[in-house]
């Protein structure tokens, strides 16, 4: 399961948004379109699909082990039958991550387990982020399985929500401070994670770090529901 890319995707999108903080003063029409087509890689693997989290390598390693052991623990009795094993893994993923109740229908076209896993996790992460950021934007079915729609959606909810919260800032510095304060308060990431995203980092790096922290938090909260298996 290629979990490193979940951090890479979220981190890249937050970085793109946070490098362009809300402009001081009233938001201009169309100002939410910060992420251009050229900013989105043609293939996520070009950004290092298997690359490790820059800020949370240990946490993501732990998440990966716990997720795999938990899913195997719940499906161990089906180990000798590939079809039953995959069906069990898919059910485990839905039961663990599909808080929205939309995953089973939106991800049914994913025939391989890696694609199904990405769809269930990233789709529900998008729904979760939209709720946390008070973004009244519908999560279109294409967001779950399409690279471009997912990128557009994540970029839009981050930028639109921060413009709404910080659009009256008088200076770029105050806008940037407001943006990070707002994101940290809304994403409810534990301090143990956000302390790695300090002011010593550049604006873009802090945005990427915070996105990865939010990804780790989302995964940790959900895999806690799995039964587990010692490995």
TrEMBL record:
Keywords: Signal
Signal peptide region: 1-23
Name of this protein: Lipoprotein
Species whose genome carries this gene: Dongia sedimenti
